[in-house]
Amino acid sequence: MTKKMFKLTLLIGWMLLIFLFSNDTGEVSTKKSDGLIVGTIEFLLERDLTDAEKIKYIDWFVTPVRKGAHLLIYFVLGYLMISTLKEFRLVDKRTYIFAVILCVLYSISDEVHQYFVPGRSAGVIDVLIDTVGSSLGVWNWANKYKLKTRKIELKLLKKRKKVKKQVDSNE
Predict the structure, then answer these.
(1) With the CA atoms of 160, 164, 167 and 170 taken in that order, what torsion angle do they form, in degrees rounded to the nearest 10?
(2) What is the reported pTM?
(3) b vs e for 115-137, b when ≥16 Cβ sit within 10 Å of the residue's Cβ?
(4) Which of 104, 147, 161, 171 has a C-alpha 20 to 30 A away from that of 68?
């Protein structure tokens, strides 16, 4: 499998995973979020929570956990999107913008999909959080790409100086 196909497969796989999460009914989605919250708190406290404590912690953390999941999932989508696009074209500012636009369009389609899933709804706030997440993912990739490119440029510059020094010493 080529690098291009591997990255494309990862991207499509991640998009499929997002679709599958969005396909959960409201009840299933709530159980997953609540289970994550309770499981994490019990692990950290090293004890089982009472029912009252479970309700208290779920109330405190359900919104940050669910919105944080949007941010993280779309961060990864943005990172995978720009990484995949790089395999198909030269990376410039337009490519970064295009990657974010593709992620936003996917987020909108995901929210529309959720609107038709029992117990779920579509949310503009979720699209905005997804946009921030995907933008951060693209930004993170871009900074790593620039750093990598800069390191290569510095190596080439050192080699040129070394060759020039050798040429100058031979004259």
Answers:
(1) -130
(2) 0.84
(3) eebeebeeeeebbebbbbbbbbb
(4) 147
Cβ neighbours around 141 below 10 Å, total: 21
Copy the structure tokens of residue 135.
Answer: 């933008």
Mean pLDDT of successive 10-residue stretches along the chain, which has 171 residues: 92 98 95 96 96 96 96 98 91 93 98 96 96 97 80 70 69 66
Instruction: Measure the CA–CA gap between 113 and 57, rounded to whole angstroms.
Output: 29
Residue with tokens 């999909």: 113
User: With the CA atoms of 140, 94, 78 and 121 taken in that order, what torsion angle do they form, in degrees rounded to the nearest 10?
Assistant: 130
Long-range contacts of 125-132 (CB under 8 A, 24+ apart): 125/67, 126/67, 126/70, 129/67, 129/70, 129/71, 129/74, 130/70, 130/71, 130/73, 130/74, 130/103, 130/104, 131/74, 131/100, 131/103, 131/104, 131/107, 132/71, 132/74
| Closest residue by Cα to residue 131 from 68, 74, 65, 72 | 74
DSSP summary character for residue 48: P
